[in-house]
Write a structure and sequence with these properties.
The protein is about 40% helix and about 15% strand. By secondary structure, it is α/β, with parallel strands linked by helices. A seven-stranded mixed β-sheet has the order 2-8-7-6-5-3-4, with helices on both faces. Strands 9-10-12 form a three-stranded antiparallel β-sheet. β5 (about 140-145), α6 and β6 form a beta-alpha-beta unit. The radius of gyration is 21 Å and the shape is globular. The structure holds pyridoxal-5'-phosphate. Pyridoxal-5'-phosphate binds next to α3. Pyridoxal-5'-phosphate binds near residues 100, 150, 179 and 209.
Amino acid sequence: MIYLDYTATTPLSSEIRKTYEKLLEKYFANSDSAYSLGYEVSQMQEASREHIAKLLDVRPDELIFTSCASEANNLAIKGTCFQYQNRGKHIITTAFEHSSINNTFKQLAEVFGFDVDYIGVDQEGHLKLDELKDKIREDTILVSTMYVNNEVGTVNPIKEISKIIHEANPKTKYHVDCVQALGKLPIDLSYCDLATFSAHKIFGLKGSGLLYKKHNTTLVPLICGGQQEMGLRGGTSNAATNIVLAKTMRLALEKRQEHYDYVKSLNDYLRSEVKKREGLVINSPDDASPFILNISAPHYKPEVIVHDLESHEIYLSTRSACTSKKTEISHSLAAMHLDDEVARSALRISLAHLTTKDDIDTFLKALDEALQHLKKQR
Ligand code: PLP
């Protein structure tokens, strides 16, 4: 099998699985129980929080365990909006976000009456920073942008965006979706007020996310319940999952540069091979994250190519897995205003340190064959 869809999810590392299984067996008690069994679990969960805080260079009380990054994004955005709505109801995001951001902003506009502005991107997916500068107002309470786009891999300049926001309005909170950056690019949380992470993108468990919330930022909880997570997320703690997140993040961060350099060399090779093929177009900019390469095969149906490759046990996507059942053009590619045919025929190849050059060669050969025997559809 050749797996080229690491942006959608990653296989679970065997090291993490073993640790998790041991934890599940022994540390089943409720971390909030008042007896020693519960106390021990609680201590381990707090040790994990401290460990992650050190890895991210933040305070432990700035970290909230969640069930996934989608939940963390919802809590960051709605929690901020509900808390600060007396200051204003203007919020800003981009036309280029994951559906957990897009649909949260849509809900805030349609159900809760917030005034949403969207920042556009150029044809390479780079944010129009001048637009951002112009749109920040006295009543802007939140700006949310991702760090790395999950479809084309464009990298946003977080430091520069933070500077623009905080110079225009020091009270505006800045949220960054770091899901596709964790373990891949350096992350400096001093530039943002809120940030989100997911374990299953870095060889960890599904159902495991994390929200960073700067100590001077207050949130209205979305799940009211007990004292868990400093009262910001009710529900019995998923302690074993939260405990193993520290190891998951440590492993991803320890080898970050090594993995980056390796994947960059693979991506360079893949790009050079794609460029040799007349019928293919590269949609990812040259300075994109090397972990993602978005290409198009104009006039072919991308789903047909994906299924053809699947028959050779090669797995990749046409777009984000969270929107894969939609038929219209991906909103990220639509935002880039690519040629319609190019946007409609996109394939997302995503790489990891587990990918080999042989995998790339086998994929390219299968793709060449597919393009030869599949009929052009449009
Ligand atoms: N944000 C980005 C940029 C993503 O790529 C994803 C997952 O694809 C998410 C958020 C959601 O992550 P999760 O599956 O943990 O909810």
